[in-house]
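fwd from M.: "can u put these together and see what the complex looks like"

so here's what she sent:
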Amino acid sequence: MADNTRKIDIECLRYNPETDAAPRYQTYNVPFTDDMSVLQGLQYIKDELDGSLTFRWSCRMAICGSCGSMINGVPQLSCHTFLRDYYPGPMRVEPLNHFPVLRDLAIDQTDFVRNKLPSVKPYIIPKESKTLAQGEYLQTPAQMHKYYHYSECINCLLCYAACPQYGLDPKFTGPAAIALMHRYNSDSRDDGRAERMELANSDEGVWGCTLVGYCSEVCPKGVDPAHAVNQNKVASTLDYFFRFLTPHGARR
Amino acid sequence: MSSVKTYVRPMAGWWRKNPFFVRYMIREASAPLFYLYALWLLAGIVALALGPVAYATWWAIATNPLMILLNLVVLVFAVYHTWTWFSVLPKTTPDIDVEPGTLVTGGVIAAIVVCAALFAFAWGVTR
Amino acid sequence: MKRSNAPIFWALFGAGGMLAALIAPMLVFITGVAAPLGFVLPTDTLSYERMLAFTHNIIAKLALLVVVSLFMFHGGLRMYHSLHHLGFHTATGSKVVIFGGAVLATLVALWALLRIGF
């Protein structure tokens, strides 16, 4: 630690389900250098000041999606956000919005993992079945380009923290899940669009969105979930009005 | 997970806590203004159908400074609507290889052209 | 899972929004500011005689009907969503009032425009 070390107050939301009725805030004075991320600030707190502070992290390089939190009210990856940008502070770190708080900065992700993700059938439903002996499914670069950026989602849940519709009604499938649905629908190897339409066409599907657009603003990977959801409003509308004209694979 | 006690934070006042959401709510605020402006237009059409006396009443209200001020407010929101409408339009298009900026600029130019044409029409018939 | 009927309202919302984006600034300027003030346009721009002549035209009738109706369906859906955003419990009641109003306005506009004659 040289003379380029400065100090900043980090105010963290604290919540222990075993002892607390409601969350409270605790402020820590953290020395930092200009290369330190907010995550490193939290690690300093845990290592040197308060070992009870709980938060998720893993890769430290914005690819695992573990360290999402609200930093001064904005959903961000704490490994991807720098203390120097909040100096002189104080700055506030809270768990991601719209999810139940499990403990301190850790949220309960069950709804996304157990409900939202499986509901969109996030796997290739093949157009043609092939045995292993028949070889791979071939795809041109242009075909891959169609869905590629939608496949970059790291499930960090920043978009859910950004989405007021999800916050107001957690039955809404939400940005990341619908973006993933679109990723598979756009894959040339996939033939599952009709199967996924039932969810897309419902109020919990694309129609839960009012194009606030904040999800795409906060996404650290440029997935652009707002685009995925809203172009599927057009698809859903066309399906609604023209469903009687075309034969439908998943018609009931 | 479900056996663990969790804390659910309330949503009240959510839109006041982030400038992005405030701008969103301002965008949405154009809605009741369009709704009311349409009713105002309708009032004029109905007055027109009812005869010159009724229409004179509508026009008297139209020239009232308060009404002009109200319509000025609607005008400001109408311009903001045009800007925000075309700004989000790229999100509703299919995955085409066109820069979103191109669509936005194209839309705004289209609006300027249509508005200019409308003004030219009004100008032309009043010469 | 129940199919949503949102597409009907969204299609009307979209049509109205596009129409408003293209013409509302000038329409509001002419009818609400310019003509009443006599600013860049004369005060008789919307005179009874001129408006009567204008609305005798079938195209003009259609245009006015579409503007009134679509502006209200556009504003209506956004108003409905805004109620939800502000924490009000939105159910059938608010839909009936908001969209019922839009339907009613469309019918009244139709009646008035036909009454004006050709």
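replying to her w this: The mean pLDDT of chain A is 94.
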